[in-house]
């Protein structure tokens, strides 16, 4: 968020400077003809850095969503039926995305959502083919080699070196993009293609309504975290249980306690550890009984509703 706000403010200041230069009356009188030409250029060519970065992230999210849908479909098939064709499936998906975006509209789907497109005159047929090669064919070749040539150590080392070099080149290109504001991806830099705005050089309006919702939810959670410890959950559960179910009269204290090898704790329903009883014939673990009596002074047996403030150890005769 801080990065995006900084880029947005930088682009807004740059846009204001362009508009001030464009609307300066002295420069407009001196260069009337050139300002008319620059007006159209500013409105169509200026694209904020934030929009260009957002378009790349949107493209990645769209690709991941489509891949997830394909994986969900393939899960219906028998296991391993098409697992060996994973590189080809990704290649077909990327080719379809490229065909219906770059080839048809000269813009990716993420760019179309932000009203951005490439300059058509900068993408002739030769550059379109090269763009397809760099964005679709080469990733398929790399994935295919990593998937099927795992035993070729030299090929894997070369691929690792190539990936490290691409990471370095992308980092250098990113700093170059921050300085110039054009060509955010390495493919755009290699092909020397620029973006243009379809809606003109408008300010990017950022809404903070989602941050307001987050603050409201954070305040609500803090309120719950502050008030919940004051609520005696065990006593509330006991009272609610007594209201919702009809039980017989509490059993007498002199009933015989039954303890066998299969006896389970009346509270946790597990094998009894350190068996104790509170006066009725039901047996509890020591920690279950002691913990409930400490949490709720009016604790009752959750089976027969017998109530006692003391408890004793079960003695096996």
UniProtKB/TrEMBL annotation:
Residues 265-305 form the RING-type domain. It is found in: Peroxisome membrane. One of its GO terms (cellular component) is peroxisomal membrane. The chain crosses the membrane at residues 215-236. One of its GO terms (biological process) is protein import into peroxisome matrix. It holds the Pfam family Pex2_Pex12. Pathway: Protein modification; protein ubiquitination. It is a multi-pass membrane protein. It catalyses: [E2 ubiquitin-conjugating enzyme]-S-ubiquitinyl-L-cysteine + [acceptor protein]-L-cysteine = [E2 ubiquitin-conjugating enzyme]-L-cysteine + [acceptor protein]-S-ubiquitinyl-L-cysteine. One of its GO terms (molecular function) is zinc ion binding. Its EC number is 2.3.2.36. InterPro entries: PEX2/10 (IPR025654), Pex_N (IPR006845), Znf_RING (IPR001841), Znf_RING/FYVE/PHD (IPR013083), Znf_RING_CS (IPR017907). The keyword Cell membrane does not apply. Keywords: Membrane, Metal-binding, Peroxisome, Protein transport, Transferase, Transmembrane, Transmembrane helix, Transport, Ubl conjugation pathway, Zinc, Zinc-finger. Belongs to the pex2/pex10/pex12 family. This is RING-type E3 ubiquitin transferase (cysteine targeting). It comes from Anopheles quadriannulatus (Mosquito).
């Amino acid at each position: 968020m801080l990065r995006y706000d900084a880029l947005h403010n930088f682009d807004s200041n740059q846009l204001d400077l362009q508009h001030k230069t464009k609307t300066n009356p002295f420069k407009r009188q001196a260069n009337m003809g050139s300002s008319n030409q620059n007006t159209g250029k500013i409105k169509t060519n200026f694209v904020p850095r934030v929009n260009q970065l957002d378009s790349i992230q949107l493209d990645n999210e769209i690709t991941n969503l489509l891949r997830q849908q394909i994986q969900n479909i393939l899960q219906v098939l028998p296991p391993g039926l098409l697992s060996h064709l994973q590189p080809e499936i990704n290649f077909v998906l990327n080719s379809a995305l490229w065909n219906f975006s770059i080839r048809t509209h000269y813009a990716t789907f993420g760019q179309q959502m932000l009203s951005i497109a490439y300059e058509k005159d900068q993408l002739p047929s030769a550059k379109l083919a090269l763009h397809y090669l760099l964005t679709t064919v080469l990733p398929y070749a790399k994935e295919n080699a990593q998937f099927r040539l795992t035993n070729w150590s030299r090929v894997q080392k070369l691929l690792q070196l190539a990936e490290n070099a691409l990471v370095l080149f992308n980092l250098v290109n990113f700093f170059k993009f921050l300085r110039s504001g054009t060509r955010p991806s390495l493919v755009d830099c290699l092909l020397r293609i620029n973006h243009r705005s379809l809606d003109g050089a408008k300010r990017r309006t950022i809404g903070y309504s989602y941050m307001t919702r987050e603050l409201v939810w954070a305040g609500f959670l803090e309120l719950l975290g502050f008030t919940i410890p004051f609520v005696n959950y065990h006593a509330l559960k006991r009272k609610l249980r007594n209201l919702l179910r009809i039980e017989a009269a509490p059993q007498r204290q002199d009933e015989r306690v039954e303890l066998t090898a299969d006896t389970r704790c009346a509270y946790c329903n597990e094998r009894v550890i350190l068996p104790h009883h509170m006066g009725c014939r039901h047996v509890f673990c020591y920690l279950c009984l002691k913990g409930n009596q400490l949490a709720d002074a009016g604790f009752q047996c959750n089976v027969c509703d017998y109530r006692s403030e003391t408890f004793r150890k079960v003695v096996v005769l």
